[in-house]
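Annotated sample (chain length 378).
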Amino acid sequence: MTEIAFTNARIILSDEVVNGSLFTFGGKISAFDHGATKIAEDLDGDYLLPGLVELHTDHLESHFQPRPGVEWPAHFAIIAHDAQIAAAGITTVFDALRAGSFDPSDISARQGEHLAAAIHAAEEREHLRADHFIHVRCELPCPDTIEVLQNTLEQGGTRLISVMDHTPGWRQFTSMDKFKEYYLGKKLILPEKLDGYIAEKLEMQKLYADKNKVKILKIARQLNIRIASHDDATIAHVEEALGDGAVIAEFPTSAASAKAAHEKGLAVLMGAPNVVRGGSHSGNISALDVAASGHLDILSSDYVPSSLLQGAFTLAERVEAITLPKAIYYVTEGPAKAAGLDDRGVIQIGKRADLIQVSVKSGQPLLKKMWREGQRVL
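Output written by the structure step:
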């Protein structure tokens, strides 16, 4: 077993930043020292903090389907995704694989089984820097959701299931005008086809959403997999999530739903891109406002892996009540707890030595090195 010592570090603990040295042995944190250590890796005054924990990133999809209709070899897609995750300081990642496709050309939404198998194969070959788990994002209004979910679950490694409904005018886009603005602005559909698309998706919801949800919740309970709600817009949505047995509320879209979810014990997860940009890309509640109100529990990088580290430091800078240790909690211990991973996410003796070295240059956090279970991986 290898012992590693770090010295001249600003160590971010749960409630304070201390100057000193840290020791690891056998992949775990073994000791602290408030002084300097001669034989050690000198961090030159940089921060040493727990490796980041990411619960919801769909960024693998952009590597697997880099262009419409183009399917990249799964193994190479996962290697590229993992490299970007590691470069963002993420040592534990939940790869969010979709189950359920609105569009027949949407390759990623039907390939959960294939991608999960490829992730496990890459792990067995020791090709990955981060520790990977599976998060299945179940789209309720789709005819193939249950089939894809079941096939993905057979591959093992799923620890989280989220229940989503992206029907136009629903949840994320309660305003149909905002939905149209988003889809037309991103050129996801031609203007002359938009009304027909909306009518078709509303019909799909009527046909599949309710019965799919019953089956998904039954499967999650049978397998003891944690459940997350998604885009709760109202207090009624939060009550529904509680009744479903959810433990995480992903991306609530209003101040009222975020407040209700947090106060009723759901871990409120907001997007780090929302924090970095200063607002939601779809016109919903600002994550900075949720944090300032005390209703935030977790940050997720969502569609930009590098936003996780930047988002935490931005919270500490822009929200008066949030210290740097508290901001780091949202991207380390907070998500680890919500996912039931009690062995990581915090610098404590006996916890996993998943660590990152971060310097701050011109006010920006920069990842310099990363260790997973005490082994240098970046």
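Annotation: The two ends are 20 Å apart (CA to CA).
Annotation: Residues 274 and 280 are 5 Å apart (CA to CA).
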